[in-house]
């Protein structure tokens, strides 16, 4: 059965449509034939039963007169009158004890007896039975059924003949589309089914390039306050002219490791914002504390690890850093508005980070963050500048432990990724 269905699926579309239409037509007409045959048989059985009941009552009246006179010859003649009719197969008379008195014909094995009592002067003297002969009726009904089945097959054949040209016209339109796609993909299909050919050609197309992106829904994470650590790579412009290419790549790789490692402890998102500027975004909830506190902790780690890297590689790494707050996040390719809105904040923070001042500078709004001030003090350099101050003992212990881990990423082997030995 599975092989038959598989072969049918591989047939041309016109053949499939024609066979499907013809099959449905045949099923519908055969169902009607079955219902008609059952209905006809039921009506016929009721009619014949009523006729047999009337005949057996008539036979009982005649048999009562013959039994009363004891004329068995006339009784047999009465029975013969009914069995001579094609409708009845047998007739017989029984006494009160059920013993056969007279009979004519052959009693069918599966026939139902139509019985009626024989009365003489109001007393039961026996009974008569008639048995129907339904052979002719069965033959006529079978002839009718086979005729209707033949008509159903004929109608289904006509439906097949009419549907196939219609399917061929439909298939020709699909074949034209497949031919156009063949010219684009420069590939062919071994299937003879037009729909399968079309599917193969569509699968060969670069559908991902044709998909449109949904930019209607905005990510709520992009519309919450975000702490930004802006990093100015002050020494990189000078090294562009003084270091060879391999040495320059190593220097940038070290900067990458330091920034990536420092951000990783606090869920920061590292990004390049200008030719000589980086930004690390902190948003949402985190076990380490508020976004501003996390930005400040990341800045402290980056500052201390840069000092270690300078001693090891004999190059200047310590960048200028400034922390600020944006009302929106960085955005992404699905929602560019937050990224556009944040550019002004990035410009202000990058200008602040490039100031020739020691320490990690803060914007006025970032300096007011309660999550930051609870663990890190604020130093006022003058009326315009504010920077990170002393760190509480417990938080400082945490930062120093993280710095020890970060030291392993400062000079990794050549086969390591920028993550180095970091636990994230």
Q: Can you describe this structure in just a few lines?
A:
The protein is 55% helix and 17% strand.
Model description:
The chain has 424 residues and is α+β, with helices and mostly antiparallel strands. Helix content is 55%, strand content 17%. The protein contains 13 helices and eleven strands. The chain has a seven-stranded mixed β-sheet with strand order 6-7-5-8-9-11-10, with helices on both faces. A four-stranded antiparallel β-sheet has the order 2-1-4-3, with helices on one face. Helix 2 runs antiparallel to helix 4 (135-185) and helix 9 crosses helix 13.
Spans of at least 5 consecutive residues with low confidence = none
Radius of gyration: 51 Å
**First-residue to last-residue Cα separation:** 56 Å
In round numbers, the mean pLDDT is 83
| Amount of helix | 40-55%
Structural class: alpha+beta
Shape: elongated
Largest sheet: 7 strands, mixed
Encode the helix/strand succession as letters: HHHEEEEHHHEHHEEHEHEHHEEH
Portion of residues in beta strands equals: 15-25%
Number of strands: 11
Going across the major beta sheet, what is the strand order? 6-7-5-8-9-11-10
Number of helices: 13
């Amino acid at each position: 059965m599975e092989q038959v269905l598989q072969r049918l699926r591989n047939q041309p579309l016109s053949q499939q449509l024609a066979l499907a239409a013809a099959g449905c037509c045949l099923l519908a007409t055969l169902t009607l034939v079955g219902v008609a045959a059952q209905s006809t048989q039921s009506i016929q059985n009721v009619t014949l039963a009523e006729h047999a009941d009337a005949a057996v009552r008539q036979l009982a009246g005649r048999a009562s007169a013959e039994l009363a006179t004891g004329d068995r010859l006339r009784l047999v003649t009465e029975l013969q009158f009914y069995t001579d009719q094609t409708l009845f197969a047998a007739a017989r008379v029984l006494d009160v004890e059920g013993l056969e008195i007279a009979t004519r014909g052959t009693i069918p094995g599966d026939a139902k007896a139509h019985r009626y009592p024989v009365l003489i002067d109001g007393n039961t003297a026996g009974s008569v039975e008639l048995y129907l002969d339904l052979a002719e009726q069965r033959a006529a009904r079978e002839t009718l059924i086979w005729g209707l089945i033949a008509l159903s097959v004929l109608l289904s054949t006509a439906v097949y003949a009419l549907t196939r040209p219609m399917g061929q016209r439909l298939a020709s339109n699909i074949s034209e589309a497949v031919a156009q796609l063949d010219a684009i993909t420069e590939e062919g299909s071994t299937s003879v089914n037009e729909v399968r050919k079309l599917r193969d050609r569509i699968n060969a197309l670069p559908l991902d390039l044709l998909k449109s992106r949904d930019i209607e829904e905005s990510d709520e994470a992009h519309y919450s306050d975000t702490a930004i650590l802006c990093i100015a790579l002050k020494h990189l412009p000078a090294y562009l002219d003084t270091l060879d290419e391999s040495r320059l790549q190593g220097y940038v790789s070290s900067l990458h490791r330091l920034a990536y490692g420092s951000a990783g402890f606090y869920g920061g998102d590292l990004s390049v914002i200008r030719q000589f500027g980086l930004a690390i975004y902190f948003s949402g909830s985190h076990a380490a504390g508020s976004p501003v506190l996390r930005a400040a902790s990341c800045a402290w780690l980056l500052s201390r690890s840069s000092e270690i890297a300078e001693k090891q590689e004999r190059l200047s790494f310590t960048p200028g850093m400034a922390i600020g707050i944006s009302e929106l996040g960085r955005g992404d390719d699905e929602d560019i508005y937050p990224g556009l809105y944040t550019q002004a904040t990035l410009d202000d923070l990058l200008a602040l980070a490039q100031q020739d001042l020691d320490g990690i500078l803060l914007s006025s709004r970032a300096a007011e963050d309660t999550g930051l001030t609870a663990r890190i003090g604020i130093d006022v350099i003058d009326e315009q500048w504010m920077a990170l101050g002393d760190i509480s003992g417990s938080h400082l212990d945490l930062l120093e432990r993280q710095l020890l881990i970060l030291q392993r990423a400062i000079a990794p082997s050549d086969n390591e990724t920028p993550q180095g030995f970091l636990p994230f």
